Amino acid sequence: MTLTTLRASLINIVLPNRCPACDRFLSAGERLCPDCETAVLLPHDDYCHSCGKMRCLCKKRTFAYDQAIVVSRYQSDPEDPVFRAIWALKNSRNQNFAYFAAIIMAERIKHSADYGSFDLVTAVPMHRTKQRMRGFNQAALIGRLLAQELEIPYRDDLLFKERSRIAQHNLNAAERARNVSTFGVNDVDLDGKRILLCDDVLTTGNTLKRCASLLREAGAAHVYAAVAAVRLRSAEKEQSAG
Ligand SMILES: [Zn+2]
Ligand SMILES: [Zn+2]
Q: Do the beta carbons of residue 201 and residue 228 sit within 8 Å?
């Protein structure tokens, strides 16, 4: 046994490595148990490579990102393994799902025609107060790991999230809900850059759309959304069950 494997074994005794989807014990270095790995992986052909949705919305909406790469799908249900893995990523020290997602994203990108053309990776930002409370931004964690896998730079100085400056009392209830925070782009020159934009989940697509638009305003030529999991809508659940 080498010193590295001995150290990994000792850490595994003190802080056992567990599957983030089912809580089963794992050996050091494993990210998901084999059962969950099979269960959570969304086949690459089961979602639209442009909008990232399982039922394409490209004819109804524009998304501002050119292409999308997705690892898993989830439902807002505590029994759903991907829902549990995302919950663990946000609320515990178990970061296995971030590693798993970054490795699969990198594999899918390496098999795409665009492999080798990306200049950098960035992530959907979190408001600094929330990030201070949580200790980290899970989208940025996935982004950093993806950048490592692809051996390209990770940039955390492009986008930011802040409280909206529009006074809440001038808005109706729906507008207030949307006005809690807003995204912005720093004064950076992204002229002609090809960017991978990471997030942990894709729900309506509005967040990624807004961030991709801002990167384009700063000059980006190509924005590719990379997300760990897309949320299934009700119609898709029926389709998926059938
Ligand atoms: Zn498992
Ligand atoms: Zn689509």
A: yes
Domain count, the chain: 1
15 burial class (0-12, 13-18, 19+ CB within 10 angstroms)?
Answer: exposed
In a domain, 19, yes or no: no
Report the separation in Å between the CA atom of 161 and the middle of ligand 2, taken as the mean of its atom positions.
Answer: 27
C-alpha 147/C-alpha 153 separation (Å) is: 6
Residues of the domain holding 194:
32-38+51-241
| pLDDT tens profile 117-163 | 999 999 999 988 888 888 889 999 999 999 999 999 999 999 999 87
Name the more confident of 31 and 130: 31
- Quick check: 86 and 201 in contact, CB under 8 A? yes
Ligand 2 centroid to 54 CA: how many Å?
Answer: 8
